[in-house]
Amino acid sequence: MALIVDAADYFRVLRQIILAAERELLFIGWDFDFEIEMLPGESDSDGLAPDGFPNQLGAFLEAAVEQAPDLHVYLLKWNGAVIAAPGRLMPTVALSVFGSDRIHFALDGHHPFGACHHQKIAVADDKLAFCGGIDATEDRWDTSEHLPDDPRRVRKDGSPSEPWHDATSALTGPVASALAELSRKRWHRATGDTLKRPASTPADIWPDDLDVDAKDVDVAIARTEPPYDGEPLINEIEQLYIGSIEAATDTIYIESQYFASETVCAALEKRLREQDGPEIVVINPEAALSQLEDDAMHVLRGRMIDRLRAADHQDRFRIFYPVTAKGDPIYVHAKIMITDASILRLGSSNLNDRSMGFDTECDVAVEGPEALITGFRARLLSEHLGVSPEVFEEALQKENLLIGAIESLNSPKGRGLRRIDPRPDGIIGGFLANTRLLDPRYRPGQETSAGQGVRPRHLALIAGGALVGGLAFLAWQKWRGGGPRS
To answer: Nearest-CA neighbor of 235 among 227, 223, 247?
Structure first.
């Protein structure tokens, strides 16, 4: 097992695994952008990376298939991503239609309306699997230094991309085979096609330059799958979160894109009300990626912060966002929870209701060894605080408390962590928070028809409201006698 932080390291290792695969590559993802450069700033005049293969993801996959005559590549992408990022559709169609007939692409619509296929899995030859939070798409690439104004951190149109923090895992052994089987089942549900397990290959494909963080450990796979086609809800991830929170004795460390899950908040609130319960540290982004997302998710976050601070009678709760050396916010996309020195969970699930019972998610978890778990926590926090892991461990030993160690190293200027406070609800934010229209979930025992969320009737109401509002505005302008103004 290896734990990989930030997409610069992940994309570099992923290229090595793609080139080493002989039979089958499975990619199960929220989105793929086949025009991204996997190693930004490293292309030569012909668009080749230092390994001699095309730097762009789509061309790289075609070249990998061309040099491996028995290799088939399967790419399964959430169908809603086509709407979320329509500009990526044409490169996808081009790869599917004009690329190798051994590259197979499909859109996954096997979920209730409004739900999202959110798993982020890649498996090579049933031998090595990646499972975590990193998508092979635009805006994900960054180094762990999160350098201000890094010229490599740029979109295809030349505009700068914001600093981005993320994480994934690399796994071999039975868990890699199990993740491959999960991926093949997902492909079958989405397409109706059954993929056979590939013939075994003798080669060891673990990259030489990827440090092994642990060997011979038991790994759990936890899933969220909404009820669909008569199948019941699977909420193993929710159970894993709550069980880990209940078992914690000293510390609960969380990194998540959101902080809005009702059941997880209730479990944390209960622990804060205890006498001498665990410290709780949450790392979140400062703001969401859009105003609508901010209204939908961070109003809920603010309410949960208020609840937890009210329950925190021993000053054991903190929620921060990380910043660069210039003080710019770093967007947190990682999905991690570490409890004490015993349990590490990492995957695709966020701390919102969707990830507990609406979207399709996949996490992995290990219980021990202690050195792996405490070392990874030190690795993450030292990155956020701009110090070495050794310096962080020294501060932790001195302070004997996680919050004390963080605050002793947290500089008020430059790289560090900044406090998150609730924001006013606002009309739209209050409505979205009260209804959880964009953060719905199913409960155990609920059928798909009983679910909540954005339904066709909601879209019709939104469209109708926009039309009525537009007509009313034009009528008002005409009444004023001015007509539309620029």
So the answer is: 223
